Amino acid sequence: QVQLVESGGGLVQPGGSLRLSCAASGSIFKIPVMAWYRQAPGKQRELVAASEDSTTYADSVKGRFSISRDNARNTVYLQMNNLKPEDTAVYFCNAVVLHTLTARSRYAYWGQGTQVTVSL
After folding, report:
1. Digit-coded pLDDT (tens) for 103-118
2. Long-range contacts of range 21-25, CB-CB < 8 Å, 24 or more positions apart?
3. pLDDT tens digits along 41-84
4. What's the angle, vertex CA 80, arms to CA 3 and CA 43, rounded to 5?
5. How far apart, in Å, are the Cα atoms of 103 and each of 27, 51, 71, 97, 100?
6. How far apart are CA 51 and CA 40, in angstroms?
7. What three-state secondary structure class fits 100?
8. Residues 6+ apart with CB under 8 A from 120
9. What one-character-per-residue DSSP string does 16-54 give?
10. CB 91, CB 36: distance < 8 Å
11. Cα–Cα dist 8/18, whole Å
12. Residue 12 CB partners (closer than 8 Å, separation 6+)
């Protein structure tokens, strides 16, 4: 099994920056996809950014957020700049994992989430 641990959340003023980290550990051969989702109270979970062979961003964060990976450490980052109150949410790391070289199935794992609050 695989465990994902997020860190880096906190309270920041509008216009500020935060950098989230997510480290995967466990039985891992390869992680084809790592992504960040977020969920605000009373709202559905939404994709923020994803990294596969290329990167994808939600329209609401384009130009402000940047996703990057350190594949040697099975870690993904989300650099968040010019934060807005509407960015307030719990941010979740997601990873699609191949456990072995010969694995035929991919498995998706979720972290427990890290709170990001943007407020004066």
Report:
1. 888 899 999 999 999 9
2. 21/75, 21/76, 21/77, 22/75, 22/76, 22/77, 22/78, 22/93, 22/95, 22/111, 23/73, 23/74, 23/75, 24/74, 24/75, 24/95, 24/97, 24/109, 25/74
3. 999 999 999 999 999 999 999 999 999 999 999 999 999 999 99
4. 70
5. 12, 21, 19, 10, 5
6. 22
7. coil
8. 13, 14
9. --EEEEEEEEES-SEEEEEEEEEE-TTS--EEEEEESSS
10. yes
11. 7
12. 18, 83, 116, 117, 118
Angle at 63 between CA 80 and CA 61, to 5 degrees: 60
Residues making up the chain, counted from first to last: 120
C-alpha 7, offset from chain centre: 10
| 16 alpha-carbon distance from chain centroid | 18
Q: Is the dihedral of CA 88, 5, 47, 52 positive or negative?
A: positive
